[in-house]
Amino acid sequence: MNYKKLITDRFSGIPHRPTDTTGAVIALLTGLAVGAVLGVLFAPESGKKTRERISDKALDLTDNLKDGYQSVKDRISAGKDDIVGLKDRVVDNVKNKANAVSQEFKEFKDAETEKVKSGVKQAADNANDTIQDI
Predict the structure, then answer these.
(1) Which residue, among 47, 44, 43, 67, has the nearest Cα to 55 in the 3D structure?
(2) Whole-angstrom Cα distance, residue 41 to residue 32?
(3) How many structural domains comprise the chain?
(4) What is the mean pLDDT of residues 110-128?
(5) Do residues 50 and 40 lie in contact, with contact meaning Cβ atoms separated by under 8 Å?
(6) Which are the contacts of 40, defined by CB distance < 8 A and separation ≥ 6?
(7) Whole-angstrom distance between the N-terminal and C-terminal Cα of the chain?
(8) 78 near 64, Cβ under 8 Å?
(9) Is the separation of the CB atoms in 51 and 40 below 8 Å?
(10) Domain range for 104
(11) Which residue has the higher pLDDT, 124 or 4?
(12) Are 43 and 50 in contact (CB under 8 A)?
C-alpha cells in the first residue's frame, strides 16, 4: 500500500492557511503553566511545603514583575531626558540662527542706509554747486 499517496490524497482537499502561531504559542505556555502548578500540587510533599513553594514562586514572580516594571520605567525616564535634551539643543540652535540672521539684516540695513545718505548728500552737494554756478 502506498501510504504517501494516501496521505497526500487525504490532505489535498484542506485549504492552506497562513502559519500564524501566536495562538499555539499561548496555548503551549498556558499548558506549561498549568502542568507546572499541577505537578507541584501532586508532588509527594506535605501540603504545607507545597503551599510554601507555591507562595515562594508567586513572590519570586511578583519581584520579577516589579523589577521589569522598574526597568521599563527607568528606560522611559532616560528616553524622556534624551528628548528634553534634544529639544533644548534644537531651541538653542534656532535662537542662535535667528540672532545671526537678525544681526546680518541690521548690518545690511545700516550699510544700505549709509549708501542712501551718501547718495542724497552727494546729490545735494551737486545741486548746491549747480545753483552757485548760475
Answers:
(1) 47
(2) 14
(3) 1
(4) 91
(5) yes
(6) 50, 53, 54, 57
(7) 133
(8) no
(9) no
(10) 74-133
(11) 124
(12) yes
Grid cell in block for residue 110: 545700516
59 in any annotated domain: no
CA distance 29 to 4: 33
Select from 65, 70, 41, 66 the least CA-distant residue to 53: 41
Q: Is the residue at 30 inside a domain?
A: no
Phi-psi region for residue 126, left (φ > 0), alpha (ψ -120 to 50) or beta?
Answer: alpha
Given pLDDT bands bounded at 50, 70 and 90, which one contains residue 12? low
Whether 84 is covered by a domain: the verdict is yes
- For 41, other C-beta atoms within 10 Å of its C-beta total 13
pTM of the predicted model over 0.70: no
Contact indicator for 41, 50 with CB cutoff of 8 Å? yes
Does 19 map to a domain? no
